[in-house]
Amino acid sequence: xxxKTLKDALKVKDxxxxxxxxxFILFVFRLGAHITVPGVNVQNxxxxxxxxxxxxxxxxxxNAMQNYSLFAMGVSPYITASIIVQLLQMDIxxxxxxxxxxxxIGRRKLNQATRYITLVLAMAQSIGITAxxxxxxxxxxxxxxxWQSYLxxxxxxxxxxxxxxxxxxxxxxxxxxxGVSVIIFAGIVSGIPxxxxxxxxxxxxNVRPSEIPMSWLFVVGLVIACILIIYxxxxxxxxxxxxxxxxxxxxxxxxxxxxxxxxxxxxxxxxVIFAGSITTAPATIxxxxxxxxxxxxxxxxxxxxxxxxxxxxxxxxxxxxxILFTFFYSFVxxxxxxxxxxxxxxGSYIPSVRPxxxxxxxxxxxxxxxxxxxxxxxxxxxxxxxxxxxxxxxxKIVALGGTSLLIxxxxxxxxxxxxxxxxxxxxxxxxxxNPIEEA
Length: 439
Hints:
Helices cover 70% and strands 4% of the residues. The protein has helices spanning 2-10, 13-32, 42-45, 52-61, 76-88, 94-100, 103-136, 147-174, 179-190, 192-203, 212-238, 270-292, 298-307, 312-333, 336-345, 357-392, 402-432, and strands at 240-247, 257-263, 348-349. The protein has two domains: 1-191 and 414-439, SecY subunit domain (Preprotein translocase SecY subunit); 239-397, SecY subunit domain (Preprotein translocase SecY subunit), CATH 1.10.3370. It is mainly alpha-helical.
């Protein structure tokens, strides 16, 4: 279906231009991901390559952090700033609540505030991460560790993060897909070849001839398991609950009834990213404290093992955080109060449900049930690859982890739907005015 939609889209001139523009932006992003920041010794960064926080940053930045490149921070500060702005709109900051009700003008003000918060977060995170990596490595990652060097590296990484954010906005305007998500998607896809190579090295290099059939059987089983997980994930990510609604104020040609689509997983992939960041942060701090004390503190080692992905306690803690954030972020994405207010303003209602507070309570109960399914789904998909690594001794493949899989599928679904929307729009435009313009 995807390839058929893509083939049809390439026949339309303006849609083809959007696709090529997106590819060009992604090429620039991948080029910048290989240009190392001046004053940093990347080879010494390999000493802490197993750090969970570094792996998470590699995921969001498209492995740019591994090279400590210009785009090493990626869109991580922008994602954090966007979540902060969304939370502030929930009757926390009156000015933001006011802007959220002003339509297009308010949306522009909120976007501007998001950029300013992104700038501050990017600078703070750049300097903090650089200083942290310098302290955790026995060799100098920063060649000249002075405050001027940290400030210069922080300024370069901040500039790179703002450039990546700007490129994401350009994809939104002139390309296709959600710009930030597409950039993360490209980074994850770029790591798949190295992940496949690591599996090959693990299962086929230095393997005795008698063990080759078992290795091939394992690879076939792994491929089948991946296909099954991808199918289930795609099905759940597209599943939705259709809530019927009726209209009281009818205009000529308007339908008498419709439905309100609520996704089974309304929170998307954000809870997984949030839970991963919170889980890896304590592990990073504990590892830093261990190295500072010469790895001689027993309780620090015990706590570090308990929070590590490689242990069952760490996996359960990670899954619990995903479930909690799913419930929380679902109500951020779908605000029952605003939904009830909008339905009342539109002169519509849910059958057998009173407008106003009754609708708000009904949507809240329904959202709780959907979030329960979504939370369990996200938790299982996220810990299955980690459990597989622990049970079968797979290499640590960040590019094929649960978080990566969710992002890849979600972005692919959005891209296909957007391409179908472009084609449908052009079809109706051609019917009303001129035929579809082809090459």
